[in-house]
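User: Run a structure prediction on this.
Assistant: Running it now.
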Amino acid sequence: MKAARWHAAKDIRVEDIDEPQVTPGDVKIKVAWAGICGSDLHEYLAGPIFVPVGENHPLSHDKAPITMGHEYCGEVVEVGEDVDDIAVGDRVAVEPIYNCGHCAPCRNGLYNLCENLGFVGLSGGAGGFAEYSVVPARMAHKMPDDLTDEQGALIEPAAVALHAVRVSTIKAGDTAAVFGAGPIGLLVVEALRAAGAAQIYVVEPSQTRRDKALELGATRALDPTAGDVVEEIRTATGCGVDVAFEVTGVPQVLAQAIDSTRYEGQALIVSIWEKEASFQPNTIVLSERQIKGSIAYRNVYPAVMEMMARGYFQAENLVTKRIEIDDIVAEGFDVLSSEKSQIKILVKAPS
């Protein structure tokens, strides 16, 4: 079967490989659609970050080259022994987290904080940029009949956004800022709207993405190349927002996100970083602000699918391009690297 595999930074190849095989506890999925994630782009431009190189990942037992793709859905075509809650023919969205189940965070139910955290399609395994994927049955969530396959490919990134808002201190009636209006940033805007944020300020250089943020519920969209966005936010709110979400991974933006919050405000970091970022600690100390991180998601897929059924996180609002797997580098990764008007690119699985 065809699969898009990561060999090194700037070296993703569409290759013919053997179909993955089912073992006890697994399900085999005929992939429908898979999205290109910002994490995938980080691996392409500056990896390895999550990709194991040299040594096998302790949970996937795999190393580069690996089949990429972790935002995906499809139809179950085979189930392994000991799988009794998923059947052939079920449409499923994959929650691609590898966790050990034994470390302290796992024992406390915080499986996304596993000490050996990994992701199918990033840390190894049979990722979604292929015709077939095999994953542990616990990773497969049955999709409601009224969700399309394209919606299914958006469940994973929507889960990232919803989890970020859930672990923040945001409350109904609060003010928020979102730095970065890529796919996750825009999904954060929608999650904030659902959480009852009274004002949502978005900071984004792309006019197309600023317009989309306003369409999805942002109160105001600011261009960071046109002025002092921190001052604009602080002036508009009186003293800063309650919570700022950093969703760019750009070092200088971290300080802006912190500075845009009020006294006792919170800056929540959602991005995965390619390099270090700095800020002046006194901006935290003297205003008793908080900095918190958010990684992936836990126990949130059912809520995401319910919200999709209610009209949130809709594919028609976010998907800007659909491509074939043979074009994944030129029309996918390279386009996302250069065209900031693109939001979410979906890859059609080979048949």
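The longest strand covers residues 26-35.
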